[in-house]
Design goal:
- The protein is of the alpha/beta class.
- 43% of the residues lie in helices and 17% in strands.
- It contains 14 helices and 14 strands.
- The strands form three sheets. The chain has a seven-stranded mixed sheet with strand order 7-6-8-9-10-13-14, with helices on both faces.
- A hairpin with a 2-residue loop joins strand 13 and strand 14.
- It starts with a helix and ends in a 16-residue tail after the last strand.
Length: 412
């Protein structure tokens, strides 16, 4: 061994010994691995259609998710991981399933621990399937098609209610409202967008409405986007149904309602099931006459929950509308951060296990504690709302109601 090499090794040994002694003196050697990693962010994929035909709803969903992440980080982050912050990895699904898939691939490559969002049923169906290939936890914010969660995907969890629950609740409440008014409504027309959401809902309604005493006169599908509803409204005028049931996204819903108003088509009721604008403060503010008296069975916040009202004020103070996309995504992020906290890990398998056993109740929805059965939150339920006096009131269930239903609609 050369003298030069021996001298080098002695110097290296002394330096290493000195560093080790310093580390021991400061407690670093004995510190748990979690503390050594303190400050390492947990990446969370936030996926929404923020461009394209569904961009408004996607942008609203992103707002809710980002507020939740901001509040969670400000409250100290993931305490079980030494205060690790949540880092949002934002994705734009571009209002298409393919766009959603591409973003999931990017998020997986970026090392996200989980994904929340998707909004549209078609995007959620596809994106959650792609995420399943990587055992990547996926929490669905809004998508209602029941096949999202009944395919047996272990990675997929839906926070809100699906088609089956919403359709049954909507029809139960429609019957109750109609019976209370003396059964003035007997005939129905359905106008729906033609993707997985609208087509699936129309199929359910066609199967169940006759058993509830209603005759379906016609079912009219339309694409998204649709720029002209004049011919559709002319059909409604010709058939003269007692009730029109729209099932479409925001832009098309608003255009349909405005066209009905312009053509002076006034059924006894416009009763929405998951109406894209029917429970929207934006619609009510911008087109109050077209929105007046419209009823909806949809996602809604708990109007008696102080946390929900504080979030509403925060969103409105930012100059935004408090729409269901906001508080659904806000709640989904809190559900996920609760799971990460309980898992004490950013490991995907451990987060999935934590979601499976979740009893989270710190959300702002009129739900019971979260309980996932085959990926579906059994604690979730919709409510019925109605636009009354340029505001949106809860009319059912009674436990959350702030007003009684006005039906039939008063004639203008």
């Amino acid at each position: 061994m050369s003298a030069e090499f021996s001298t080098f090794n002695r110097r290296r040994f002394l330096q290493t010994t000195a560093l080790s002694a310093a580390a021991a003196a400061t407690g670093l050697v004995s510190a748990p691995a979690v503390l050594r990693a303190q400050g390492t962010a947990v990446k969370l994929g936030v996926l929404h259609p923020v461009s394209g035909a569904l961009s408004y709803s996607g942008q609203q969903g992103r707002i809710g998710a980002e507020i939740a992440i901001e509040e969670f980080n400000a409250a100290g982050g993931v305490k079980a991981l030494g205060g690790a912050k949540i880092e949002a990895i934002l994705g734009d699904a571009q209002s298409t399933p393919d766009g959603g898939n591409a973003e999931v691939e990017k998020m997986n490559a970026a090392g996200v621990a989980a994904i929340v969002g998707g909004y549209a049923s078609a995007i959620c169906l596809s994106a959650s399937q792609t995420a399943a290939r990587y055992d990547l936890p996926y929490v669905v914010d809004v998508g209602v098609v029941d096949s999202i969660v009944n395919r047996g995907l272990k990675n997929t969890f839906r926070f809100g209610p699906g088609f089956g629950v919403i359709a049954k609740t909507a029809l139960d409440n429609l019957v109750a409202i109609n019976d209370q008014a003396g059964k003035p409504a007997k005939t129905v027309m359905i106008v729906h967008e033609d993707s997985a959401f609208g087509s699936g809902l129309a199929k359910l309604l066609n199967a169940q409405l006759p058993d509830r005493g209603f005759q379906v006169l016609e079912t009219i599908p339309h694409p998204t986007p649709t720029r002209d509803f004049n011919n559709v409204v002319l059909k409604i005028k010709a058939e003269n149904p007692d009730i029109v049931i729209p099932a479409n996204y925001y832009n098309e819903y608003v255009l349909l309602a405005r066209t009905m108003q312009q053509q002076k088509v006034q059924p006894k009721g416009i009763y929405s099931v998951l109406g894209g604008a029917a429970s929207s403060y934006k619609f009510v503010k911008e087109f109050p006459e077209a929105a007046q008296y419209i009823m909806d069975c949809n996602h809604w916040f708990d109007p008696k929950n102080p946390k929900a009202l504080a979030l509403k004020k925060k969103v409105e103070d930012k100059g935004q509308f408090y729409t269901y996309e906001v508080y659904m995504n806000y709640s989904c992020v809190l559900l996920l951060t609760d799971a990460i906290e309980r898992a004490a890990s950013a490991d995907r398998a451990k987060i999935i296990a934590a979601l499976e056993t979740s009893t989270f109740s710190g959300h702002v929805m009129p739900y019971g504690p979260t309980k996932f059965v085959n990926g579906q939150n059994e604690g979730a339920a919709p409510v019925n709302t109605q636009v009354l006096g340029n505001d949106i009131q809860v009319i059912l269930p009674a436990a959350f109601a702030s007003a009684k239903p006005v039906f039939p609609m008063p004639r203008a």
